[in-house]
């Protein structure tokens, strides 16, 4: 968490969007078009994600891309 904030200028905190959960925010200005970070994880169907984490009711940190995809 500290590395993300100090080195990358990013932090996870409650979203300002009602009902959205957590969001990823910058701690400093970022120039338009600048590469920030690459996501190298799995892109899952929302139904697969929900089934995988149904027992707990949530995943470690899932971000909904659209109605059908979660990362």
Keywords, separated by commas or semicolons:
71 residues, alpha+beta, two-stranded antiparallel ribbon, 2 helices, globular
Question: What's the layout of helices and strands?
Answer:
Elements: H1 2-6, E1 10-14, E2 22-26, E3 44-45, H2 46-52, E4 69-70
Structure description:
- The chain contains two helices and four strands; from the N terminus they run αβββαβ.
- The protein has 71 residues and is α+β, with helices and mostly antiparallel strands.
- It is globular and about 35 Å long.
- The two termini are 19 Å apart.
Strand order of the largest sheet: 1-2
Q: Mean pLDDT, nearest integer?
A: 82
Helix content: 10-25%
How many extended strands? Answer: 4
Spans of at least 5 consecutive residues whose pLDDT stays below 50 are none
Measured distance between first and last alpha carbons: 19 Å
Estimate the global geometry from the Cα principal axes. globular
Helix and strand string, N-terminal first? HEEEHE
Short structural description:
The chain contains 2 helices and 4 strands; from the N terminus they run αβββαβ. The protein is α+β, with helices and mostly antiparallel strands and 71 residues long.
